[in-house]
Amino acid sequence: MRITPINEGFAAEFADVDLTRPVSGDVVAAIESGMNQYAMLVSRDQALNDDTQRDFTRRFGPLEAASGGHVTATSDRRLPLDMQDASNLDQHQRVLARDDRRRMFNLGNRLWHSDSSYRPVTARYSLLSGRIVVTDGGRTEFADMRAAYDALDNETKAEIEDLVCEHSLMFSRGILGFTALSEAERTMFEPVRHKLVRTHPSTGRKSLFLSAHAGAIVNWPVPEARAFLRDLIEHATQRRFVYSHVWRRNDLVMWDNRTTMHRVTRFDESQIRDLRRTTVAGIAA
User: Fold this and answer.
1) Mean pLDDT of 82-106
2) pLDDT per residue over 120-147, tens digit each?
3) Three-state SS for 109?
């Protein structure tokens, strides 16, 4: 298996391995090593289906269930509970209407975020399979939160070292004006707390842990916290820290949620865009 950098220090492509078949422990170890170095990896021409994608993902740990991270009723789901739907389709394989509540909620994916930062135990890896891709737009952009941390001045590093943020889907969707939530949804989206600076358990490298889901800093006034978090996200998403992935059909992209943020860019939603995500569950600290 070959791993080739796409840009220096962040993002690489791995090839010469067929992920539709069981892979060896050596391949898994090489991919984990590549993830530690680059934080995100791309593999082309992987014609995965739901079963093979889940089987490959499980080589890195148990799958995270999709429950609790959306407003889609179980009866309206298109995919199994251990897969996240990153498409613009409903359960009947039709493009979601512009005013469909599920589509409006999913517009939050256009904001910079880290998957599952709104959960008490955050996600490890995410793996996104491009089954049907659009001809223009719909890129997935990634920001290297390790490099963003390294580029901060020493005074800011000292200031943020012990800060704790509150994360919730209510914060990220509220930015877009999506505030019409049921009491059950508000309970499901109750804020959780995570440190703003995290140390990677394998590499020992520090990174920022930011997300549109972060809407408060413990013991800070809310307006001050949100202004500061906005400044940090603007810093962390400068072009020098970002890789923008142009999708081709059967691409598999995987990234480490502990050291990256990502977002999807706009696209023509009259076209079908069917991407399916599996997530490796994190480990409670």
Assistant:
1) 96
2) 999 999 999 999 999 999 999 999 999 9
3) helix
- Round to whole Å and give the CA distance between 240 and 230: 18
Token pair belonging to 72: 């889609």
Identify whether the C-beta of residue 90 lies closer than 8 Å to the C-beta of residue 269.
Answer: no
Task: State the DSSP H helix or E strand holding residue 275, giving kind and residue range, or none if neither.
Answer: strand 274-279
Q: How do the domains of the chain map onto residue ranges? A: 2-279
Residue 78 region, left (φ>0) first, then alpha (ψ -120 to 50), else beta? alpha
Tell me: pLDDT of 285 over 70: no
Cα–Cα distance for residue pair 114/170, rounded to 1 Å: 15
Q: Where are the beta strands (DSSP E) in the chain?
A: 2-5, 12-15, 40-43, 84-85, 125-132, 140-144, 164-167, 192-195, 197-199, 206-208, 214-217, 242-245, 252-256, 260-264, 274-279
Q: Check whether 267 has a pLDDT greater than 80.
A: yes
Q: Quick one: what percent of the chain has pLDDT higher than 90? A: 94
Calculate mean pLDDT across residues 40-62. 98
Cα–chain-centroid distance for residue 185? 21
Q: Which amino acid appears at position 207 of this protein?
A: S
Tokens standing for residue 56: 């490959």
CATH for 2-279 (2.30.110.10, 1.10.3210.10, 3.60.130.10, 3.30.499.10): 3.60.130.10
Question: Over 80: is that where the pLDDT of 284 sits?
Answer: no
CB atoms inside a 10 Å sphere around CB 276:
22
- Rounded to whole angstroms, how far apart are CA atoms 182 and 16? 48
DSSP 117-159: TTSSS--SEEEEEEEE--SSB--EEEEEHHHHHHTS-HHHHHH
Residue 214, token pair as written in the block:
């972060």
